[in-house]
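Researcher: I need the complex structure. Ligand is zinc ion. Inputs:
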Amino acid sequence: MTTCNCGALAVYSDPFNPYSLEYCSSCFEGYIEKKILKGVSRRVRGHPIAVAVSGGKDSLVLLTVLHAYQDELKLPMLIAVVLEEEIPEIQQERQMIIQYMQNEFSGLPIYHVTYSELFGHKLPNLVSANDRKGCGYTPCSICGIFRRQALFELGVRHSVDFIALGTTLEDEAATTILNTIRGISPSFQYDTSESVMKSSQKLPQRIKPLARISEDLLRVYVKIRKIPTISTPCPYAQRSLRSKITSFLISLKARDPQGSFLFNILKSKQESERKSVSQRQIYACERCKMISHHILCPSCRILFKIFELG
Ligand code: SF4
Ligand SMILES: [Zn+2]
Ligand SMILES: [Zn+2]
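Model: Output:
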């Protein structure tokens, strides 16, 4: 029987840290929180932040920790943005998560915005129109493009400087592999100085405080804190290449339980990003007026292709 430093019975250790101590529940909770706080870069301190909450465990853990340490992080404003794709299978559960957030995080402004409000269509309608017309988008590629744009738009509307995403180590690894398969070069940096937006509009930057943390640890945190999360899987997930890559990464984890391959993928991603940072201009889309790197934003291009193009 192992004991934690505090004297209580030890029940957890960090499988991704070869030097991990053994912890009791309460000390392991603190250990994970410390890891998350380490992922919040110093440049974020003193700035207003929005947390993008899907209702899944990752974003809810991130919100829980940022809310608990808001003063310590010197965040003058923290808001939660919940994007609603209006997928019936998960909409009801998300409503329960919002209820939980309202009860749990006192004083936290929560903005729950639907795809219909922002783009005029629910995700299921976009997916069926796309399928009918044979445009070739996967549901996740439509959803991802709209979500990314919606978050920037809401960030601008609520004057935040940063949008915190619950992207985990596994998500980062899967995205890197996906981008490599698709031949997409490393992320671009927004060039605010060249922006053609009104100078009063500041562009929020995306941050990923969980990018070096495995979702296995977040799962334990959710269990210890008894945080409710959406349990129904998205009905479209199986159609995505990402789900196949995620299964592949899980099978690799069985061979490398310390997850060194995940940190290696992350390292190569960061190195190639450093080498190829390019700056891009920002526009207000000529159709929907949301911010974009293009005169016609990616969402409007999808809408045009699905609904208007002959
Ligand atoms: S699985 Fe795909 S379609 Fe479903 S919510 Fe996630 S990104 Fe959107
Ligand atoms: Zn302890
Ligand atoms: Zn647009």
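Model: Summary of the prediction. The CA atoms of residues 80 and 220 lie 23 Å apart.
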